[in-house]
Amino acid sequence: VQLVESGGGMVQPGGSLRLSCAASGFTFSSYDMSWVRQAPGKGPEWVSAINTGGGSTYYADSVKGRFTISRDNAKNTLYLQMNSLKPEDTALYYCARDGGYTYDYWGQGTQVTVSS
Predict the structure, then answer these.
(1) Is the separation of the CB atoms in 96 and 28 below 8 Å?
(2) Three-state SS for 8?
(3) What is the mean pLDDT of residues 67-79?
(4) Sorting pLDDT into bands at 50, 70 and 90, what band is 100?
(5) What is the mean pLDDT of the segment spanning 99-109?
(6) Which among 8, 34, 86, 101 could bridge 49 via Cys, Cβ 3.0 to 4.6 Å?
(7) Burial classification of residue 35, based on how many CB atoms lie within 10 Å of its CB (0-12 exposed, 13-18 middle, 19 or more buried)
(8) How many C-beta neighbours within 10 Å does residue 23 have?
(9) Among the listed residues 47, 61, 28, 52, the one whose alpha carbon sits nearest the alpha carbon of residue 94
């Protein structure tokens, strides 16, 4: 199993970024997926989740209305479109596979920095 995030970077407040997570080594379409972030000095924070078919999505209150999770099962890729970014969105963003009772596989993370 491998999850590889990309798309992070530095952006000004109010800007946008689109994160991608390329999945391999398992049947991607059979698993719910999530994005989790960790800011410096803080614990992990769940951001968003999507079911296997992409028809159900869930968001933390802190990102609702600004972030959109999606997936392309044909490309084995998970996405997170982030708009209206705020400095408090600065964190290392991970994609994670939902193993049922826990997130059983994580990517290496991609850094998002929101700063003027």
Answers:
(1) no
(2) coil
(3) 98
(4) confident
(5) 93
(6) 34
(7) buried
(8) 24
(9) 47
